[in-house]
Amino acid sequence: MTRAVCPGSYDPPTNGHLDVFERAAGLFDEVVVAVMINKNKQGLFTVDERMALLGEVTAHLDNVRVDSWHGLLVDYCAAHDVQAIVKGVRVAGDFDYELQMAQMNKGLTGVETLFMPTSPVNSFLSSSLVKEVAAHGGDVAHLLPELVHKRLLKRLAENG
């Protein structure tokens, strides 16, 4: 079985993330969407909430499952027999950063990283930008799965 992991914070998951998951699902027997836990970062959504959102937006993909991990991604790969890391890249800056990470990961454990260019319609899209625009009243409905958009608006309203 070929298994890949798509790691990220997914706070919140966007249409760009979903596009990468769907495309990776067509290439591997199993794709794990891994919410990476960073104790130093406070997200808008909890890890459990992000995992639930991801589970709902990937429910139509039979070979995709959601998990979380605190620690080195390569340790997750070793513990779960993951052969490849799939990373969506939007712009050259993403690639520069991700290439260093890929080379480090390969050197540590031999796990391969595959870079998937984002679809042009999602090339500007980031969770941070979506949250910022939404917090200032901008319309981000077309950038998120519908249920994520609803929960984002609700959370922003709760936070004032």
In short:
Keywords: ATP-binding, Coenzyme A biosynthesis, Cytoplasm, Magnesium, Nucleotide-binding, Nucleotidyltransferase, Transferase. 43% of the residues lie in helices and 19% in strands.
Structure notes:
By secondary structure, this protein is of the alpha/beta class. The chain has one domain: 3-Layer(aba) Sandwich (Rossmann fold). It has six helices and five strands. Strands 3-2-1-4-5 form a five-stranded parallel β-sheet, sandwiched between helices. The longest helix is centred in the middle third of the chain and has 18 residues, at 92-109. The chain is globular, with a radius of gyration of 15 Å. The model has no long low-confidence stretch (mean pLDDT 95). Keywords: ATP-binding, Coenzyme A biosynthesis, Cytoplasm, Magnesium, Nucleotide-binding, Nucleotidyltransferase, Transferase. This is Phosphopantetheine adenylyltransferase.
